[in-house]
Structure formats: structure tokens, C-alpha cells
Amino acid sequence: MTLAEKIGQMTQLFSFIPDAKKPEDHARSGDTGSYLFLTDPAVMNRLQHIAVEESRLHIPLLFGFDLIHGFKTIFPVPLALAASWDPAMIERVQTIAAREASAAGVRWAFAPMVDIARDPRWGRIVEGAGEDPYLGSAVARAQVRGFQGAYPGEAGHVLACAKHFAGYGATDGGRDYDSSNISEDLLRNVYLPPFHAAADAGAATFMTAYMDLNGVPATANRFLLQQVLRGEWGFRGFVVSDAFSVHDLLTHGFARDEPDAAYRALTAGVDMDMGAQVYSRRLAALVKQDRISVATIDQAVRRILAAKFRLGLFENPYVDEANARNVIGAPMHHEATRVAAQRSAVLLRNEGGLLPLNKTKYRSIAVIGPLSDSGRDIRGSWVFVGNPNDAVTVFKGIRGKLDAGIRVEYAQGVELRREYPSIFDGLLGIKHPPELTQAQSDTLFQAAVDLARRSDIAILVLGESQEMSGEGASRSTLALAGRQEELLKAVVALGKPAVLLLENGRPLDISWAAEHVPAILEMWFPGDEGGRAAADLLFGDASPGGKLPVTWPRSTGQIPIYYAHNLTHQPENKPGFTSRYWDIPTSPLFPFGYGLGYTTFQYSNLHLDRAEAPAGETIHASVDVTNTGSRAGDEVVQLYIHQQAGSASRPVRELKGFERVALGQGEKKTIRFTLGRDELSFWSSAEKKWVVEPEQFDIWAGGDSTATLHASFRLTPPQSSGR
Predict the structure, then answer these.
(1) 430-469 confidence digits (pLDDT tens)
(2) Lowest model confidence (mean pLDDT) among 158-167, 222-231, 258-267, 567-576
(3) End-to-end distance of the chain based on CA atoms, in angstroms?
(4) Residue 242 catalytic?
(5) How far apart are CA 11 and CA 13, in angstroms?
(6) pTM of the model
(7) How far is residue 201's CA from residue 256's CA, in Å, rounded to a whole number?
(8) Regarding the domain with residue range 1-65+234-329, which homologous superfamily does it belong to in the CATH classification?
(9) What pairs with residue 602 in β-bridges?
């Protein structure tokens, strides 16, 4: 390979960005090895043919895509999938996404995003698994297995890309792209574990993050890319920059100029430059100047070519376009997204057992809200393929569920729009209608209230439009946007039964609703079959069993709030020190792991196989859970621990086991957990290593992070291995 051809393999281009050369010319000359955002099988086959048949080296192209929660068939957003607490289901979902994408010719998913996020103002919380490293690690493993199959290159699968490495979810103020300042203790105990889990699961690629971490941009961070990823974890795949982030080393004030940016990124461990073309412009000169060795270039190229070989692209570079039409959007995939949406929903409130609704009790139903009949919004963010009109909205789902004799009517009620346009509006060609005048807004509002007044029950679908969550969609407040809360209050004031159904990508401020609306069902952005899934849940053909993957704050002012906080100073016997705020309680509105169902569960008999064990050995725990209600349902059994003392102050509780279990009426099951080195170790800043310390531990089992069923055990010093 010539130096130019090697650098070409290290360069990824965006298909939608104008270029002096046509994609066909790039493929023919071999000056790019990868394209992003192509989705048409015919187009990809044509470019692949040029690369394989007409270029000098016949090296196939690698087509990438942001395969976040589906290709054409759109599943619930990743935060919703995490709310299922069902890794097996998550793996099935991403297997289907991979099947559709690979049938089209896309063989590289820019997912999973495994960033831990403890600030719901951050827009990209919607793409991850929430706040907890244990749950996040389980979700990361499931997604990698779903995308890649048993091994990178398995037929019908794609390469996974764990992103954004690392600490992006801790950006200052929840502002996208801002800096992250994370202690090594938090980095290793909270933010890195899901990435380590992805690497252990075999993720073939990693993507760097936009922000700087403790003063060093992630795209040139040798500590992350060399010491941790390749050194400590033994990662052997290749690393790609996030879009334009090699060039952004100048923006950070880190690199002096483009040659310096190319040098710093490559020598830190970034093998492929996404979009910026800094490598293609600058690496050859750096080699001639002996600033970068040919061996360094070769190492990066070998990693990229090895991935293409593992995918089988050299043997089978093309896709069957007829088969693609059969696979992409197949009917069986829609049933899978309906089930996923059912299992991801979280019932937050159900006073008086309003839900499930009786299908014959209510003869007229008002479905109200700007999200009630929006196919585009129910699919959520990061959706680029398919027709939003094909998505089943909540209004359509309810109308299709009930007999023709029941009147189901829809009213938009209020306008919902971002103050600033989304960064994806131009990419997707989205044009928003002109903003309503005050008179038009009032008319729309009153029509919805009038509909609720003449109906037996109102179902309000409120939350966020799809562009309000995701990249470039951080928010300063969690309040319901626009006049949504005003509409909610007006409808509730009518005295009719009311249900609040949320579509959103983050926790929102629903403190008023949590006191005044009898039933609240969190659907997140549930995907193409979200409307049918919502109707199934509302009318009892499916039961909610999801749990919150995040702590739900009472107000924006509580942020950051998360369950696994450390113990700190607590004044005793001093009036006025009952709370860390004087105007609201310290507790969240809903705790991490919380979620109701249509039945009830009782926990009992928390048992440990031994009360004492040498540090490094395993303790087995079990707990009985019984369905004490009147119908079948799912419960997510959760296990938490707390180390009472040691070389560092440990969080008050840490999730260390969970299992989603289905129980019939009156049924009891015993759930078993293992507490070994992985569960009981932590990174000690004092010791500068991972430790399992001989100390006393608390353990709790229950349905959320406030579980009260308690036991304890002690780890003793390890037994001597001497004679």
C-alpha cells in the first residue's frame, strides 16, 4: 500500500457533506475506507463495486450508521430499553436492528452509547442506560452481543462501537459538548465500567468523546486510549474519533494547528478520523517530517483492515438487494418493537387502581396533547430511515383497540416546539410550520378542554417532541415545554378521570401531576408500535413491569440527584438541619429502580449462605418474592449493598444484582444472586488499585433502591496460601 492508500483507510467521509470529489471518485482512488449515513443498498453496492473492482488494491468500503434503536423498524430509545431491566430483550432488539442494517449494506453501528448520565438536562441521556454502572454494564453487554452476535463478523450482524469514551455524560451543567471534570475514583467506579463491559463483550470498535476530560480532550487522551483501553483492558480493535473531533482539538485550545491535531490524535490512539479529513490532509507531511513513523500508520491500518476481514467484506462485499427488501421492516420486527415498548414502560402512579381501564366502561375517550397523534415524535431521536406516517401513534393505537361504538377523539391542545432548531433538521429536511398566533393557540387550547369536558375520560399524551432529546438537545429546565402543564391542569380541573401518558427522553418535572393526576404512565419514546403498546397497557392486555433507570427529581434545582451518593456530614440534634434544602425535600420524586404494576409483590426470607467469608471469595444470596395481587405481573428484583467502612467512603447503596421475573397470581419464586470479587471490589484512590476490603457489608433486596428487607455479612482478611 502507498502512504496515501493507508491514510485513505484511516479516513471516514460523510455521505451528505458536499465534497470536491464524488463518492465514486473517492472509492476508485482508495482515499477513503469508510462512509457514513448511506442507507440505500443499491448505492452502497455501486460504491462497493467501484472500490472492489476498480480501485488498485480492491479493498472494500466499510459503511457505518448511527444504529441507535433500530434501522427502519424503530424500537424504544435506549433509555427506555434500559427501563425494561431485561438484557435478553435488549439483545433481541439490537439483533433485529443489526439484521436490517446489514441487509442494507451497513456493517458498522455507531452504538451502543454507554455513557453514564446523572444529569437529565443532558440531551444525550436518552441514548444511554441511565445513572448506574451495574445496570449500564449489563445493558452494554446485551447491546454488543445483539449487534455483533457470537463474534465480530457473524452473518446478519454488524460491528459494535462503544461510545463516547469516556466521561461525556458528566459534562458541566448537563450542557452538550462541555468539559467533564471527574475524579479518578468516580471515573473508574462509575463512568468506565460500562465501557469495560462492552470491551469484555467483544466490542470491535470504540469512539472517542467530544469533550475534554480533566483538561485533556478525549480524542487525544493517552490515559484513556493507551493506558486504560489498550493497556489495562487489552483492547485489540480500532478507535474512531467522533465527528470532526480531530479538528476540534484546535477548538479546545489543545492543538496548535491541524498538523499538531493529527499528530496528537493518532499518537494517542485514534485510528480513524471521522469527517474532518485532518488525517488525509496532514498525516503524509508528518511522516515525511519524521514526526510520525510509518509503523504507527501501519498499526492503525492493520486494525481497520482486520475488522474488514473479520466482517467477511473481502469475500462477500455486496448485499442481496432483493433480500434487503424482505428483511428491512419485516412484519415480525414490528411485533418485537411492540413487545419492547410494553416491557419498557414504567407505571409511576395509579391511585385508586384507575389503570387498567375497562374497555366497556368509558363510551367516549378524549386523547389530548401535541404528541397524541405524531408519528414522527413517537419514534424519538436518532431516526433517519422509514416513514413517520407508518408509526402507530397513541391515538391510533387506542382507536384500533376499542370497538367502533366507543367514541375516541383527538385534540392537539397546544403547540410544542423548540426555541432553537435541531441540528438534525437540515439533515432530515424537516421544516416546521410557522408559530401560532396567540389567538390560534387559545383556540387550539380551548378545543382540547371542550373535548375533555364532553368525554368520559381524558388521556393526555405530553412530554417532549423528538428533537427535544438527543444530541444538541440539552435543556436548562425539566419543566413540561410550552403550555402543556397549563393544559393538564385545565383538563384535570374538569373532574373527569385523567391519565397522563409521557413521551420523552429524560425525567421531566411532573411534581404537580404526581399529586393531582391519578395515573401516570411513562412510555419514553416507544418507537413504531408505541401506540399499540400504550393501548395494550392502558386497557390491561399487557401489564407494566419496567423500572426507572434514573432517579427522578422533584425539580431541576435538585440536579444532580442519584441514589448511589456517598455518606457525608449529617448534623445531629440541631433544629433546622432536617434537609439539605429548606424549600423542598431532599428525596427524589421517584427513586431509582421504581415502578408500579397492576399487581403487588411481597419480599421475604433474604438469606445468605454464610455471614462471613474471606475477602475474594463468593457469598450467595437469595430472596423470595411473592405475587400478592389479583393478576399476573412482572417484578424486577433488585439487590443492593453498602460497605460500612474502608479505605474510602462508599455509596450508601450500590446495585449489585437484578432479575426481571414473571409471577402468576399467588406465585412465589426464589431469586438467587452471587456476590463475588466483581460485585464487592472498588477502585480505591488511597490504594491506587482495585480492592476487596475486609469490612462489614449491608445488603438489601426489594423492588427499588429504597428496599427495606435487610441482612449483613462480613468479609475477613484473605486466608493465607502458605504452608
Answers:
(1) 788 889 999 999 999 999 999 999 999 999 999 999 999 9
(2) 567-576
(3) 59
(4) yes
(5) 7
(6) 0.97
(7) 38
(8) Glycoside hydrolase, family 3, N-terminal domain (3.20.20.300)
(9) 626
Pairing of strands 407-411, 654-663: unpaired
- Between CA 299 and CA 31 the distance in angstroms is 18
Number of other residues whose CB lies within 10 A of the CB of residue 135: 25
Residues with Cβ within 8 Å of residue 178, at least 6 apart in sequence: 171, 172, 211
Same fold, 1-65+234-329 and 343-552: no
Residue 415's pLDDT band, with cuts at 50, 70 and 90, is very high
Beta bridge partners of residue 273, listed in sequence order:
11
Distances (CA, A) of 28 to 21, 22, 46: 11, 10, 11
The single-letter DSSP state of residue 295 is H
What element of type H or E holds 713? strand 709-716
Taking only the tens place, the pLDDT of each residue in 224-265 is 999 999 999 999 999 999 999 999 999 999 999 999 999 999
Query: 614 versus 572: which is more confidently predicted?
Result: 614
Q: Three-state SS across 467-531?
A: HHCCCCCCCCCCECCCCHHHHHHHHHCCCCCEEEEEECCCCCECHHHHHHCCEEEECCCCCCCHH
Give the span between the Cα atoms of 8 and 30, in whole angstroms. 6
- In DSSP notation, 573-635 reads S-TT-S-S-SSS-SS-SB-TT--B-SS-EEEEEEEES-SEEETTS-EEEEEEEEE-SSS-EEE
Give the three-state DSSP class for 561. coil
Contacts of 573 (CB under 8 A, 6+ apart): none
- pLDDT class of 578 with cuts at 50, 70, 90: low
Which residue intervals of 312-393 are DSSP H helices?
Answer: 321-327, 331-344, 375-379
Show me where the domains of the chain are located.
1-65+234-329, 343-552, 601-716
CATH number of 343-552: 3.40.50.1700
Which of 31, 86, 115, 242 is labelled catalytic?
Answer: 242
Q: Please give the grid coordinates belonging to residue 331.
A: 412484519
* Class of domain 601-716 (CATH, top level): mainly beta
CA triple 632-636-640, angle to 5 deg: 150
Render 25-82 in DSSP notation, one character per residue. Answer: HHHHHT--SEEES---HHHHHHHHHIIIIISSS-PPPEEEE--SSBSSSBPPPHHHHH
